[in-house]
Specification:
The structure is a single chain. The chain is of the alpha+beta class. Helix content is 32%, strand content 39%. The chain is elongated and about 100 Å long.
Length: 174
């Protein structure tokens, strides 16, 4: 122990350099933490989900309950800390036959209603009816990729895979 104390007394420049490096490291860590903390209120993030919409009906005479698939809903939930303005919410297709360019799927009979401002913890929904989807998907090749898709006013694109056209057509026809 005495040798270590003697060495430190004789080489005080080395110890000063080590303490300086430790101080710089702590300063860099403090700066990174403060920048991340300052950015938290401005975090923008959407979560895309989908669901099958099913309508149930009951025959009052026989008591028989039937169910029919109405369509598919595409939901965008704002899980960030600031408002997000959506310009498109729906389904996007990437088909190998069209050079893999993305194509937004539009509705045949209805207007797109899932656009507008989404506050934090709010959800916007866009419903695609079964007949429209069956017609649109039947025009695509079986290996066309289907994505849930949203775009905001800052042109940030959000994708989530929903499978391929062949599987989605089979599920809709069941």
């Amino acid at each position: 122990m005495g040798l270590i104390i003697k060495w430190c007394n004789e080489n005080n420049g080395f110890i000063t350099a080590i303490l300086s490096i430790i101080g710089l490291l702590l300063s860099v860590i403090a700066i990174v933490v403060s920048i991340r903390t300052a950015r938290l209120p401005y975090k923008k993030k959407l979560k895309l989900t989908s669901s099958f919409d099913v309508a149930f009906s009951k025959n009052t005479i026989t008591g028989e309950v039937t169910s029919n698939l109405v369509g598919i809903s595409v939901n965008a939930a704002n899980i960030g800390s600031r408002n997000v303005s959506i310009t498109y919410l729906g389904i996007c297709v990437k088909d190998k036959n069209s050079n893999w360019n993305k194509q937004k799927m539009t509705k045949i009979r209805d207007e797109i209603t899932g656009t507008g401002m989404i506050a934090p913890a709010e959800i916007k929904t866009e419903l695609y009816k079964k007949d429209d989807l069956l017609y649109s998907l039947s025009l695509l090749s079986g290996d066309a990729k289907i994505y849930l898709y949203a775009m905001d006013t800052e042109e940030t694109e959000y994708f989530k895979s929903a499978g391929n056209a062949k599987n989605m057509l089979m599920n809709l026809e069941k």
